[in-house]
Amino acid sequence: MRTLPLALLALALATPAGADTMRCGSKLISIGDRTFEVLQKCGEPVQRDLVGYTGGYYDSREFTIEEWVYGPNNGMLSILTFEGNRLVRIETKRSR
């Protein structure tokens, strides 16, 4: 009987955090989405910045790192980070 609460706790800890998705109107974007998918669901960002480059596997390829900014929505900015063509991070920050 003790195993069930521990299993439920382990399952809860393994569930992805809310920062892995972002709502754009009635649509959701998620970590791993491609840039064209984000554009289709969220539209053009307020700002795009080329941050730099990162090496690929075994340094055989370089990927661009871009940050896209959406908002402010209810005083919050959403900052999306793309490596290559894939969404790798979703951050929110209170706008000033």
Structural class, from secondary structure content? alpha+beta
Envelope shape: globular
Average pLDDT figure: 83
Number of helices: 2
- Measured between the Cα atoms of the first and last residue, the distance is 51 Å
Reading the helices and strands in chain order gives: HEEHEEEE
Write the layout of secondary structure elements.
Layout: H1 3-14, E1 21-24, E2 27-30, H2 35-42, E3 47-55, E4 62-73, E5 76-83, E6 86-94
Antiparallel strand pairs: 1-2, 3-4, 4-5, 5-6
What does this structure look like?
The protein is an alpha+beta fold. It has one domain (16-94): Beta-lactamase Inhibitory Protein, Chain:B, domain 1 (2-Layer Sandwich), CATH 3.30.1450. The chain has helices at residues 3-14, 35-42, and strands at 21-24, 27-30, 47-55, 62-73, 76-83, 86-94. Strands 3-4-5-6 form a 4-stranded antiparallel β-sheet, with no helix packed on it. A two-stranded antiparallel sheet has the order 1-2. The termini are far apart. Mean pLDDT is 83; it is low at 11-18.
Quick take:
With 96 residues, the chain is an alpha+beta fold.
Keywords:
96 residues; alpha+beta; Beta-lactamase Inhibitory Protein, Chain:B, domain 1; four-stranded antiparallel sheet; two-stranded antiparallel sheet; 2 helices; 6 strands; globular
